[in-house]
């Protein structure tokens, strides 16, 4: 008997470990595999987490390759989808961190007002559940 949800979470954590080890190509592949599995089983929380981390790693990978954040469209879309998922299932910390990651993309693309607005939204979300450290990041 297979445990698809367990396999999806294993791939998710493997992707994070590969990123920590500097292997971003494999990290993205494993995060995308987990994203596909969570999507198929309709696990919205797992899907949101996989989208968030895949978007973040993809953004950082592209920035390392190009020296800027101008080609972050796919990463931005993943992060926007993650934010919407976290909001829909009422996970404020996930939504807040997605806002912070989106703010980095906006700031890197010369959209400072939008980045600041996202930081403000993140700060409000962090404050809503008493996360002062998260608020400091925002």
UniProtKB/TrEMBL annotation:
Alphabetical list of InterPro entries matching this protein: TPR-like_helical_dom_sf (IPR011990)
Record-linked PANTHER family: HTH-TYPE TRANSCRIPTIONAL REGULATOR RV0890C-RELATED, REGULATOR-RELATED
Protein name from the UniProt record: Tetratricopeptide repeat protein
């Amino acid at each position: 008997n297979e445990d698809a949800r367990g396999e999806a979470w294993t791939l998710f954590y493997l992707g994070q470990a590969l990123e920590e080890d500097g292997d971003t190509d494999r990290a993205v592949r494993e995060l995308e595999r987990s994203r596909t599995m969570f999507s198929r089983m309709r696990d919205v929380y797992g899907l949101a987490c996989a989208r968030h981390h895949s978007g973040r790693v993809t953004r950082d990978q592209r920035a390392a390759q190009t020296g800027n954040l101008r080609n972050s469209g796919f990463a931005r879309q993943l992060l926007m989808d993650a934010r919407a998922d976290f909001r829909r299932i009422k996970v404020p910390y996930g939504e807040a961190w997605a806002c912070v990651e989106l703010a980095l993309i906006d700031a890197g693309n010369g959209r400072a007002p939008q980045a600041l607005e996202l930081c403000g939204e993140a700060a409000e979300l962090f404050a809503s559940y008493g996360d002062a450290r998260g608020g400091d990041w925002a």
